[in-house]
Amino acid sequence: MGDHLDKSQHALLNEGEENEMEIFGYRTQGCRQALCLAGSIFSFGILPLVFYWRPAWHIWASCVPCSLQEADVVLLRTTDEFQTYSWKKVMWISLSAFGLTPDHPLIADEEYIINRAIRKPDLKVKYIKVQKIRYVWNNLEGKFQKIGTLEDWLSSAKIHLKFGSGLTTEEQEIRRLICGPNAIDVEITPIWKLLIKEVLNPFYIFQLFSVCLWFSEDYKEYAFAIILMSVISIALTVYDLRMQSVKLHHLVESHNSIIISVCERKAGIQELESRVLVPGDLLMLTGSRVQMPCDAILIDGSCVVDEGMLTGESIPVTKTPLPQMDSSAPWKTQSEGDPRRHVLFCGTEVIQTKAACSGAVKAVVLRTGFNTAKGDLVRSILYPKPMNFKLYRDATRFLLCLVGTATIGMVYTLCVYVLSGEAPEEVVRKALDVITIAIPPALPAALTTGIIYAQRRLKKKGIFCISPQRINICGQLNLVCFDKTGTLTRGGLDPWGAVPCDRNGFQEVHSFASGKALPWSPLYAAMASCHSLILLDGTVQGDPLDLKMFETTKWEMAISGDEFHIKGVPAHAMIVKPCSAANQAPVEGIAILHQFPFSSALQRMTVIVQVMGGDRLAFMKGAPERVASFCQPDTVPPSFIGELQIYTTQGFRVIALAYKKLENDHHTTALTREKVESDLIFLGLLILENRLKEETKPVLEELISARIRTVMITGDNLQTAITVARKSGMVSDGQKVILIEANEATGSSSASISWKLVEEKKPVPYGNQDNYINIREEVSDNGREGNYHFALSGKSFHVISQHFSSLLPKILMNGTIFARMSPGQKSSLVEEFQKLDYFVGMCGDGANDCGALKMAHVGISLSEQEASVASPFTSKTPNIECIPHLIKEGRAALVTSFCMFKYMALYSMIQYVGVLLLYWETNSLSNYQFLFQDLAITTLIGVTMNLNGAYPKLVPFRPVGRLISPPQLLSVIFNILLSLAMHIVGFVLVRKQPWYSMDLHSACTMKNDSLLKLTTSPNVPEKTGSNGAFTSFENTTIWFLGTINCIIVALIFSKGKPFRQPTYTNYMFVLVLVLQLGMCLFILFADIPELYRRLNLLCTPVLWRVYIVIMLISNLIVSLIVEEAIIENRALWMAVKRCFAYESKSQYRIWQRNLANDSSWPPLNQTSYSDMPGCGIGVSYSNPVFESNEEQL
After folding, report:
1. Residue 296 contacts by C-beta under 8 Å, 6 or more apart in sequence?
2. Measured between alpha carbons, how far is 1046 from 1053 in angstroms, rounded to an integer?
3. Which chain regions cross the lipid bilayer (predicted)?
């Protein structure tokens, strides 16, 4: 529906974004609605229930297609592989209350979306609200567009001109009405709503049907048991959802009630509640500790902001004003580097403001409500990306098979009972009974218990889960991405040494561990002043790297008083000065006048300082290669590259420093960054140590030995990342690293990609040092043995994605080290791995990893910051030991789910076969017989079978990922056939026994006669068949075979090694099986008349009871042999795969096979260009993100 529609009826919402949707226009029709209402009444509420499960059917039934412009209802369909439907009513806003005319200047200017949305002449705005975001109808372009944000096309000049003085009261009122309130409202969902949503689940509806049927048959005990289990299951789910709703509500409620100063164009500054803010409002930021209630662009003054909510790191970040440029290009493209350095994000805290010459810090509201950064984070939690895990799809198919089986049973039952002349109501009841037997109503509760147990075990290990369904997916992980800093390595950086440099080159390394102070020099001054630290409540705060560097100097920080007067210096400037413990310096102190803050895109920061009683200087620090490019070439030592490699290849973090003298008469704000950052003098290198965490290497070795790929995604230096990969064992000793460098197209040449082999070499002058990296020039065949890893930077990854997309899957097959990656690139990389059918895990410390943590199949955050709420798993232990724990528990939970599915299938089929055989005699099992099997056997097994813990060792293969894979299907079908054969043999043999008689003459005649009298007593409510009662030799035989067979199947299907602890370690389960088996054998051999009467059993000769036991033992032995020798024989299945030349259809497996046969891969010491054949942008693979086609065995 909707694929061949008129263009005016169909459009795309949020085109190209993560939440892209198709939108279809519909108009409600009175006669169709009347028919739907009549259908709802006559179907006794079944039709509304179907419409609730299938929203598209509701719209198709009650509405007619029309153009989006005429629509009063829209149907939405997601563009991902799930194709999820929803519908929304079109609503209207009237502006007539403002008394405006269509030609009023406020609404006549159609440059802005708000004005284009106003329909003239009646001044109405049409809108829809989808996932908390408001979309208005753009009358000019004829489409729905997002509102609540400033237009992307606005230039910096336009922002300063249009919004620099604030909005008028009328503009504010109109925008307020159209954009809606600036609030991230997450209401606490009422319990009754959660309850109704949960109860309307199709399986609970089926349970309701089953319970009603059982009550009509006086089968009250099990009905009450199922009601109790369902109530507990629903209560646990509702409680969990309610707690999440409350937690999320408390997370955002403080944001909605902030008082903030807003400058109005005519009325001046007013104190307003944050709910009334609109895009374009001018905020006046004063004082400190201001919570940002919206996203805003800083246009005047600077701020220090704590962005812990967004990044997971509580590090003060300096924000600079958006420069006013003449260009008409969009403001995001005008600013050099990252445009986010001008944006104050919602939910972050402004901890310090610094006014410029105008005397105020001003910011223009950019986005409000759910359009903001925090709103986006909250929406990602409220509307998570659905999972398409094959287990859940297979479960649906499995249930459909059971439904098909039940239908066959119903037809058989109808034929048998109608031909035997039974009353119609009895025939219908018996036929419906078959459905409740074939489809076990206890299945959801049994599966839920397995997940709850796994969640509880994870909690004991300090791993918390907000998405329990993902625990099963953990069992399928075959690739794990790790952030480096704070995840693989320790979070902090310790200063190790400094390498000063002069005109003669690098001097001797000064080690900080020696205890000797670094002599006074410009390098020392740079370390003391080139940072973004702030003084807050008497303590120095800021980036850990800056903090460690400053602490090394033993200087102190202070704010200048009012008596401090230097030309061009603001009154309260930051001053650093030597304290008593510091090395004697020939200066009284240094005043920091201006900062050009650090950004990961620019890889540098610069400060302008004034030495007290001395020169005005500029200091720069940053990535060595970047800093050196801004220096005078003759000041950079010739051995710069070699010296840098010595330290980066040992895993050290290296920072370069440089400086220049400035003229004192220049005002600091008049100096542009370009002018300051030129012709610098190179000062030297600062070496910082970032040690591996103790747990890193053993954990990575465990994952690699289990054939789980490990990948590093970091924002750090590439060579440092390569060394950390080697030291951690991610790249083992005998393996090669191939460096991939890709460059954008320049004027003369197209985009290029080059491949260089990186080799370890022992440098002669540094015998006491570790290895360093050298680029080999000669071609080597070692890299072509498949024993190699690719390393590349974020820049190269971007160029490859843009210009060499056909090479991307080949590179990803062996890509292990990705350095200098931005947060967006981390998410993209995770998605690209998913397209190759990998099940991807992402582990990060929350800093800039939020997107990747959300994108991965399994994201685990090592941070408990607010930003980590988007991650399904959070570990209290801040190291990667949680990853193997999670995979082990995931594998155990996945195997447990399969065991439970198989057991429930067999239990229902055993009962189904037994009942259908008895129906042949128009007999059945009695209520107490059913109750014993359902409650005393199956329910107890369902609760205890899941208690096996995870096996402590990770094996080098994953559990079967599909419920309908050949081994699983064979296991279920074989056991069903075995049970069927045993039941038929028992049913046929008992009728051929010499003591068998319908008049109950046998070796136990006296007992059976008394039993018969007891059974047919009028005081006992009984369902009766044509033979007068349930009691028969067939019934007794079938019941014993079925009941004990349920216990045998539980033992057979309860798997232990290699993914779960052995069955004998599950003491509760073993105890339950022993007690159940003991009880069944006791009933079989006991000859207690009262017990037999209650259970509607007949006494049989002891020999026949022995035959029953022999049949059951034979069943156990055959089933056990087949299960162990065939079903669980991995070597056999691998041989079968080879015999039939089966090859996995997973994309990564296909690429592995292709690359293994490609002698020209990898292309060492070559450079390719995007205009060369085979290097174009044609995408050579395509697969849905959350899909895996691997047919595992």
Report:
1. 283, 343, 344, 363, 364, 365, 366
2. 11
3. 32-53, 222-241, 398-419, 431-454, 892-910, 930-948, 969-990, 1036-1054, 1066-1086, 1106-1127
Strand (E) or helix (H) holding 760 = strand 752-761
Specify whether the CB–CB gap between 387 and 473 falls below 8 A: yes
Q: Quick one: which of 968, 969, 978 has its CA closest to 895?
A: 968
CA 391 to chain centre: 18
- Phi (first) and psi of residue 117, to 5 degrees: -80, -15
- Indicate the pLDDT class of residue 269, thresholds 50, 70 and 90: confident
Please report which helix (H) or strand (E) contains residue 713, including its range.
Answer: strand 709-713
Catalytic residue among 295, 483, 543, 837: 483
Contact 465, 669 (CB under 8 A): no
Distance CA 320, CA 330 (A): 18
* Known catalytic residue at 483: yes
Q: Can you point out the beta strands (E) in 1116-1182? A: 1166-1169
Q: Is 990 helix (H, G, I), strand (E, B) or coil?
A: helix
Q: Are strands 709-713 and 479-482 parallel, antiparallel or unpaired?
A: parallel
- Nearest in space to 90 (alpha carbons), one of 37, 11, 27, 10: 27
Alpha-carbon distance 414 to 420, whole Å?
10
CA–CA–CA angle 794, 800, 806 (5° rounding):
145
Is 117 within 8 Å of 124 (Cβ atoms)?
no
Residues 6+ apart with CB under 8 A from 20: 12, 13, 14, 78, 79
* Model confidence at 1002: pLDDT above 50: no
Do you find a cis peptide bond into 586, omega within 30 degrees of 0? no
Structure tokens at 1052: 């057979």
On whether the CB atoms of residues 616 and 604 are closer than 8 A, the answer is no
Which structure tokens are listed for 975?
């056991």
DSSP string, 141-210: TTEEEE-SB--TT--HHHHHHHHTT---HHHHHHHHHHH--S--------HHHHHHHHHTSHHHHHHHHH
Q: What does the pLDDT look like over 763-803, one tens digit per residue?
A: 333 333 333 344 443 334 443 345 889 999 888 898 888 88
- Which segment of 298-307, 329-338, 939-948 scores lowest on mean pLDDT? 329-338
Distance CA 813, CA 974 (A): 39
Closest CA to 1050 of 964, 981, 979: 979
| C-alpha pair distances (Å), 452 with each of 392, 567, 901 | 17, 68, 16
294 contacts 368 by C-beta, under 8 angstroms: yes
Tokens 């209630």 sit on residue: 293
671-688 per-residue burial string, b: 16 or more CB within 10 A, e: under 16: bebeebbeebbbbbbbbb
Cβ neighbours around 301 below 10 Å, total: 21
Question: In the prediction, which pLDDT does 1016 show?
Answer: 39
pLDDT tier at 523, thresholds 50, 70, 90: confident
Residue 313 burial (10 A CB sphere; 0-12, 13-18, 19+): buried
